[in-house]
Amino acid sequence: MDAQSRGRADNIDPADQWVLNPNTGEYELRLTPSGAQSVPGPRRSAPADAGGRGARGRSADSRGADGRSADGRGAEGRTAAPERAPGRDVPAPRRRRGEPEEPLPGRRGRRPAKKKNKAKRVVLWTGGTMAFVLLAAAGSAYLYIEHLNNNIESVSDDGASTGGFSKGKAINILLIGTDKRTGKGNDKYGDKDSVGHADTTILLHVAKDRSNATALSIPRDLITDIPDCPTKQADGTEKVIAGTTGVRFNTSLGQDERTPSCVARTVTELTGIKPDNFMVADFNAVKTLTTAVGGVDVCLGKDINDPDSHLNLKKGMRHIEGETALAFVRTRHAVGFGGDLSRITLQQQFLSALMRKLKSNDTLTSPTKMMKVAEAGTKALTVDSNLDSIGKLKDLGLELGKLNPKNLTFTTVPVDDNPAETVKATVVLRPGAAQQVFDAIKNDVSFTAVKAKKKKESAALAARLKGTKSAASEVRVRILNGGAESGSAQAELSYLQNDAGVLKSENAGNADGEQAKTTLEYAPDQADQARRLAAILGLSGAQMKPGKSVTNDQGLPAMTLTLGKDFPGAGKSYSAPTKAPDVDNKTTADKVECAK
After folding, report:
1. Superfamily for 154-447?
2. What is the DSSP secondary structure assignment for residue 308, as one 8-state letter?
3. How far apart are CA 157 and CA 199, in angstroms?
4. Beta 550-551 vs 415-417: how paired, if at all?
5. pTM for the whole structure
6. CATH code at 459-563
7. pLDDT of 106-123, one tens digit each?
8. Which residues of 306-329 are buried (b: 16+ CB within 10 A; e: fewer)?
9. Domain ranges of the chain
10. pLDDT in tens, 332-387
11. What is the DSSP code (8-state) at residue 90?
């Protein structure tokens, strides 16, 4: 340890404590502040302290008449060179900080002091700091998650949903936009006393493999039947709100105190698709969500000035958020034919723009925006009781995040003007076309051209359907009920005998157990009969089971058709549609459409 580190050198650089011994030619460390070296040698002067004393504690009085001290050092401030010892040079000037020390020629230089491992200190300091930060962040994250959980408002699903979406299965989410004028400034829009009808309704179907999705808009003015709605009351009791027939779809919410679960039941009644979850958004949701993402870009094919919605924008691409975004999705009189179907087109364009913005790097890489979205979303949306935590919403978001915008199709239920009206105000389902759309969604058929997935059926399964087919009159089959509704075996028998020409068929009662899928078991020499029956019923290769035959009531060999829980009904084909039907208006979320 040098003198400075021991507190003896005041403000003197440690290098100044080393002096040259002229007798040995070695540098020596002077540790005693007042003691002289054993052999005097030339030394550089040290600065005086505030009291006029030199670095070694001597006062000016101890100097000789020539201004030199007793030990040969010059007085403070003098520039005269010190005396030199015969044959010896004075030490080189003190090296600058950071310069390497150069030893005298032929002499061993000063051994540098061992430095502490700076890198190790940095690692230890950084590791400790990061641990602290992570712990603090974890605590903050927990508090923030609790804050978001407290933001979420939920209502009972009243048994109208499947109980919640599942990973590994197709997802059906019902999105409900209400026209209830709650929130600051919203009472200026039209009917400020509205009870909050289902003004905008979209059934979002996400494919099982997450390769595609379909957003199906249901017109608010569609004439439909609303079923009875069991509704849980605040006191825990249940009240059944009576259904009505032949009314507008939008009255499935708000009217007669109907809740969002009534909308879900009405959608199931209309489409045959039971939602997994539902979400309800009001006017504020549009304003806050668009503001949270920093606005979205929409396109106008013409100038629009709609006094009813308060939208006033020029033709071209426009950046909208907040009040302007709300005005955009509410506009109908200034676009298309001025009706609700025209407004649906605008709403689909808006949602496409919002999805593009949410999927953009500008949003995904901004923690600030993501927190704003989380804050706005949890405050603006009301969800069903199976989706009432930030954890569940996060899981749903991760599933939806797998979608590519180019494979998200927006379309509308096929409808026609209500023929019972002189002044066209409502619409009705288009016969055939609407059911084809519903069936395609139920069977997970994509409305976009996505890359085909690998077929589960092997070539061997497909080969079971290929080959010669016997005549229907030659088919002998026994029918068992293995999980279908009671009476299904007899109903299918009637169809086969009366409509399909399979006269050698019989009802063999109930199977030994229940099974999920319908199967047809046959012996090798019955393959022709099996292919004919498969063609009649629409069976797949996977439903055909090579095995052995059984004996029918006449003592003749017969095949066995076991109806499973998937039985579609007497005379209905098991084959699901493989191609989506053509629809009038269809667009994908990756495309920018211009409102006209």
Report:
1. LCP protein (3.40.630.190)
2. T
3. 19
4. unpaired
5. 0.62
6. 3.30.70
7. 555 555 555 555 444 444
8. beebebebeeeebebbebbbbbbb
9. 1-114, 154-447, 459-563
10. 888 887 788 888 999 999 999 988 888 887 777 788 888 888 888 888 889 999 99
11. P
